[in-house]
What does this fold into?
Amino acid sequence: MAAKKEKQQIEREKQTLLTRKITFRLSESEYAQISDDLTVCGLSISSLIRKRLLSVRVASRADLAVLSELRRLGGLLKHIHNETLGAYSSLTAQAIKDLSEYARALTEKRRADSSEEN
It folds into this structure.
């Protein structure tokens, strides 16, 4: 859901005509911090700076990838449960519970980070 909102935001940005240019200098440590942020979020420099200046939440690519993987693993566990007719029901139930708790904690962390930024 968050990924969909981010895609919509990106589309809105593309529709906006970007006609003004700003150039500024950074220290080595500031540039290193921005470079690290670019690696985590997967945006261009201008897009990242624009989002930060406009107080738009910048999601971590890693968080989104982890949530996606957790959902995929949950689906695979459900498939195993169905295919084995519940032969491993206690194990699959515990694994699904663990995955769900981790996904919920990660989602809550992202929400808390988002509310702190605003």
